[in-house]
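Reviewers of the previous submission asked for a worked example of the structure-prediction workflow described in the proposal, so we include one complete record here. The input consisted solely of the amino acid sequence. No template or homolog information was supplied to the procedure at any stage.
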Amino acid sequence: MEIPLKGNIRDYSFPKMLVQLNRKRVTGTLSVSMPHFTKKIYLIKGDAVFASSSYEDDRLGEMLLKAGKITVEQYDKSVEILKATKKRQGAILVELGYLTPKDLFWGVKYQVKEIIYSLFQLEEGGFELTDGNVPTHEVITLKMSMGNLIYEGVKKIDSWTRIRQEMPDTGIVLKLSEDPLSLFQDVELSPNDKKILPMIDGTRTLKEIVDSSWTNSFEAMKTIYVLWSIGILEEKKGAQREIKETPETVSFEDLLQPFAEEEEEFIKRVAEIYSNLDKLKLHELLEIDENSDTETVKKNYYRLAREFHPDRHLSASDATMIDKLTAISDAVTTAYSALKDDSGRAGYFRLLAKPAKKEKAAEKESDEEQFKKGVDEFKKGNFQGAVDLFREAARINPKKAQYWSYLSLALTKVPHKLKEAEDTLLEAIKLDPLNGEHYANLGLLYLKSGLTKRASGQFEKALKFDPGNIKAQKGLKQIRG
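From that input alone, the workflow returned the following structure tokens.
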């Protein structure tokens, strides 16, 4: 279900809302308003980094008092100084010696998590997603995977009716997801909750799993609800009850174990792969050769998807790590899409076996010929092929804006390439800044990403240079309703 920019949380699953924002790597603010307070979650590239609340009990001092970190006397003294100086209460508590900097760090993260967790318990309230507006002055930010955040939040829900309404029919058969990006999220299940997982074997219905669980039905349903909401579990279509299937590509042990690798060593490995992404061939990314069979390709893909999943490295010391991992994950997924079946893989290696001939032919072809071939491939629906041809045309003649514009269009048709599509379209605008069509296309790209304010700005620029631009007119009409 597509989540709108504005609505009421009673009409949508709050966990699935957070999952969708995370998958789309949205940067912005999700506000939830009740008659007497408003709570906000601030997201950067899909990860919740901070939260705020106008509810008095959500203030830092109150949170620390309830957590037993400060006394009432210390709380009152800090409030007295706060009113006189307007300093932040956390800084005052540290200056007075009531908290250590480490305690303050814990307190702020605790406050942010509790504000977010409280939203899971609301059964109604108006929500609105706005582009940008993320506080950049916060020194202490939350570094927690969306999967773990949802897991902890759902555990605080005490309404059976709500959980049941948001779950599918109890007669469906559940299985592990076949999407590694959903499968290998960082979710730290409790030892008790882990006991439920072996029962999800692709043959049991939701009801059978709940009825057979070691714990009470409500707690079992909450655990399954978390895994269903974040995409680790999915419905098994056309399930045959008499045939028992065991996942061959991944086990529950693989799913839950942290990836064991020294951070310094891993950072070097990521940096090396990231710096060579444009040079690495598809089979090199997947670490396969022409003798690899389909099962090997799939196993390698799952292993690499798990190793480079951004969720598993949110606490990395390298500030650019998440962006690098996202780019690597996207590249690995693209490689798998191209090489996962026998025919595609065989064709790829046949072409690879004649590199000299291919390079020689490419040298003879002009940028215009590469571009025309790209247009033909795009019309056929071969978007990755079109991307390669448009990219080659732009390499031969980088000063032609049209090549960059078409390259951007083709990239929007390839999974996880919207950021690269934006970069190439910005290059087209730099070369041809008075062309309204470029701005209109950029507006559509931002609209597709849920960045409505940016989209609106680009549509307005398009109409400034091209008042009759239909794309821009329709885009603004869609945004303004």
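The chain is about 55% helix and 10% strand. We consider this example representative of the routine output the project will generate in years two and three.
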